[in-house]
Amino acid sequence: MGVRKGSSIPIFLQLPATIVIWSLVGYVLIWLLYSIVHRYVPGSSPEFIGLGNFLEMLYDARLHSAVLRTIYYVGIGAFIEVFLGMIIALALVNYIKNDTIRFTLLILFITPMCLAEAVVSIIWLMLVTPEGYINCFLRYMGLPGVGWLSESLALTTLMMIDVWQWTPLPLLLVYAARSSIPVELYETAEIDRLSPFTTFRVVTWPFIRNAVLVSAILRVIFMYITIDKFIMITKGGPGFASEIIGYYVFVQSFSYRNVGYAAALGFLTMIIAAIITYFFWNMLRRRE
Amino acid sequence: MPEIILQNVSKSLNGKPILQDIDLEIPNRSLYCILGPPKSGKSMLVRLIAGLEVPDRGKILFDGKDVTELSPVERKVAVVFQDFALYPHLTAFENIASPLTISGLTKDEIIKRVEKVAKYLKISHRLNHYPSELSGGELQRVAIARALVKEAMVLLLDEPFVRLDYKVREDMRAELYRLQKDIGINVILITSDPLDAMSLGDKIAIINEGKILQVGDRTEIYEKPADVFVARYFGVIEMNFLPGSVYKRGDEVLLKTKIFELRLQNVKKLLETGEVLIGLRPEHLSITEFGKFGGISLKGKLILSEVIGSDTILHLDVGLSEPLKVLVPEIYRKHEGTEIEVEFNPEALYFFSLKDNKLIARGGDIIG
Amino acid sequence: MDVKKLLVFIGLTIYGLWVLAPYYLTIITSFKELVDVFSIPPKIVPFIDFKPTLEGYQRIFATKSGWTFITSLITATTATILALILGLLAAYGFSRFSRAPMNDERSFFILLTLRMLPPFAVVLPIVSYWVFFGLADTFFALIWTYTIFSIPLTVWLIKGFVDEIPKSIDDAARVDGYSFWRMFRRILIPLLGAGLVATTALVWLFLWNEFLFALKVAGGNVVTYTAHLPQLKLGQRTLWNVFAAMGVIGSIPPIIILILFRRYIIRLYLR
Fold first, then answer.
1. Which residues contact A174 (CB under 8 A, 6 or more apart)?
2. Which residues of B touch A2 (CB under 8 A)?
């Protein structure tokens, strides 16, 4: 690019960011590697146990339940968000012809994902708490209140809150993708008298496929790693009813201070996240 | 307006060699053309002469002074880029003034100089506009103005006409020619269009695959191309090629091709090789309909006629593996399938060795 | 009007109400007196069902709760600016010097994966790091942490913008005699203009909304408005109107940014 070979400019450009980042990240990596192979609990000094932490995971029933809950929460939640987002995006593009209305609706629909999860948590807490608005309405209509945060429903309620907040992401991505499809393709489909399903499969889907996949990856990853709602609303409860993996790691880290085990768990979650990303990335690569 | 010498210049990128052992002598105050197909290394050559890159090996000298390690500003070069590279967020005026803003000139001096150059390039009326508002030709002029305003000694143009349309291109060629003669600055023009080189270059260097194939003026290269590649590349339209063999028959030496025969003399080098490649330029063939002059005649069926500008290119099937191209300097329309007779002067033939593709002789050297 | 269209309109309306209702309820709650909050029949029309009051907001500004917004502002803004500067330099390197050491694709990839680390897995070591240096629960610690996690985002976004500027412009500046930094200042940054603004908004928004690090790396003396929210939830005696008011105020910057940047957001997502 016109800079002499061996010029130091490229390195100077990267140095500040690199120094700042590694001043902390280096410690974190070393800490993690150390803690993973030690038994490190409050009150005693760390003890080397090799892969003992991972062995413990195999017998940790609480962990296993958390894994199942995570699969439920993330699997179904992300699916609903992507599906719903896609439907609404397509509805907006296909059925709202007035640009101003469409744009206003779009902006309105996007607002939930711009707010802090903590704020969304309190918004919904006021609705789903036992004495909250939803139950007030129900009781006003003569119906019994629902235990939204009870053992059986807590996790599902949290999932619905996530759906409320994050459906706009797939919505936005699919909306953008759908908007880029040339009108002529649809006109041709109409001339060829294709059914709506075929039109979707042949014209729409190839264009929105990437948006759907990307938003799916993003939502899966972020539902997996974000525990704000869990800290704010249920604290994993009642009991452990809404404890997903991330929250379990949090509890091990800060409530039990079971440092070694928490580090090992954290490490495991990172591996899982990497695998999921890799899996989705490949799906994206194929047929790009 | 220095004499520029490149000695043994080589450059690789990512392990791939782009230029290999380039030796070039660019006389001062000349309009020098470097002509080559895409990916021949000519853009890198521009960057090296300009000082935007440093060669891996070799030296670059301006009037004897080694400038290899110097920056573009220190070398006093100016560059006009293929995509003009004008700053989109500045007006034409500010773009032109840009090189002067670091030179310590006063504001008034800068304004004077910019206006002077703008007037010379006939864009004074567009100085307040932004690049997005200017036409291709105007952008070109602003780019040249920016280059000239700092009174550089060398002006490098990297495929400057590629983004212009046909008519504007012709105007700009004339403009550039006038400019160079007026100011006397060293102009080095990089292009892949042989027409640019043919109409502009005092001296022309043909480059391909990182090596200089030939240097000369347009007549030299046209009449005595170094090899088949140069002959094919440097012409109005691509040359016709056909194989031939040279052999002895008693005292005589003959050339035999599929469509004609010739007697030759002074052919030592040709006899050594035996098989040759014959080249014949489309512009050296004429239609006998307009008058015969006694050359070798060929007959063929018309396959295709292309009208380009005010000329016509005829594609004739004369029995060779490829049609023979004939350039007719007017608009000539005939039905496909018409028999057409053409003739050419054998002195115009080019003889190339099949071994190394190099030119052995012209017809005029060896016709008996 | 055919059935399909009608169904779609009904569906969109339901979705729209579903999105709007919680906002509405939160906003009116912020203007209620505590007794009016959860009553049966639900009081949802101001002036008719209940008398609006500023009690919730007053409590915020009378106590330290109000200051949490200032804390959020300081930490988010400072970290954004730092991440922007550091990210801009690195992004230029990745874009223009992709063959130079530390600027290549592999380094870029490593930088991006940083972003994908689950915060809950790294909070503890980060907290212990700051405790070790005696800087736990300080502005410095939170801002530094925020900066580090924002850099991958700024680099990724800005690199995309730099890639769109033709390299010949860099060359032209060099031929014009510009020093590297002058080129950066006079040519690169103005041309990046809109892209830098959009990146700033996005990064700042994320930090304004951040919760976990604010809670654990800080949370005692240095409290952002998000970290303050759990402190307001007191079981039976939760001050719902204060809660709602905090939420309303905390939502103002995101809404403003959304409105200001509505066109950019669409374009950014198209990347």
1. A85, A86, A89, A90, A208, A211, A212, A215
2. 47, 52-53
